[in-house]
Protein 1
Amino acid sequence: MSRRAIKAINWSALAERLPESERATFSAFKSNSDKYLQRMMANPETMPQIDWAYYRKAVITPGLVDKFQKEYEALSIPYPQDKYTEKIDIEQQEMAKKIESFNQQANEAIAKMKTGLDEVAGMIPFAEMTMEDYRDAYPEGFMRTDIATTWPHTEESQEDLDDDSPDDEDGH
């Protein structure tokens, strides 16, 4: 038999990671955990020894205490097998890999966003831009001013953007 318990849990570190909406649930969980640990620690780790000599003197029926002692010592209650620690360790390793992957993706996204912010910071402010400056900065979002277009002013929505000549099919 063995008794295992986590002796020290860093409750404050756990509490720091929780959102405010989960604080009440966390407090209830911590309270229940503390009560369970207190009840468990109040009991001895091993069963107290039975004073068989005392009972042999006190019990009048001969052989009864010896019979009980023999049956008691033959009794074996197995401690439940630990089926979950290995699974928890595997899940913990998988989660660590997922967290590392997430951190890598997040760092890549942050670097990309910082690059975008640097580009925006290096631009002329929109209030000071001319139409040519805007066209140079955002060529895909710029409405063409050199020819007449119809709404929505995208190249896909125009009939003949490639044909810049106003002539008809006869060449007139």
Note: The chain is about 50% helix and 0% strand.
Protein 2
Amino acid sequence: MRGFVIFVALIISISGITYSREVPFEKCASPCGELDSVDVTPCDGEPCVIRRGTNETIGVTFTPNEVVNSGKIHLYAIKWGMRKELPLKNPYACKGYGLTCPLKKGIAQTLSFTDTVPQDVPSVSLKLQATLVDENGDSVVCGIIAVKIV
């Protein structure tokens, strides 16, 4: 009986594991770098379901084609062909996202963004576009993923 209880507890704990998934992405114009991969945590399907009031983490691995001394992140929601910039508490790529500037040319980097999805965001399927621009305003990396907010 004790073994059965341990087995059930193990199944319950496994079902609560947070899944990370490399998700399909579209590349957009980024002449100063190459987008390698995008991971979303938690994500258990396509498109990733993002739940209001929960923490979501997006990891972006990219390789700059130039030295990047500083950069800013721009995040956009895309729906019905319209693009709206979303506010970020901290738009500075080298402060709090796991990057250390200057970023070296040809060396893969991973930017990790974690934030809580506000409760007042409506339930909707849309695309998210993230762009990292360098100190000259040139796009270092840009990618678009599909998400569903519930």
Note: Confidence is low (pLDDT under 50) at residues 1-18.
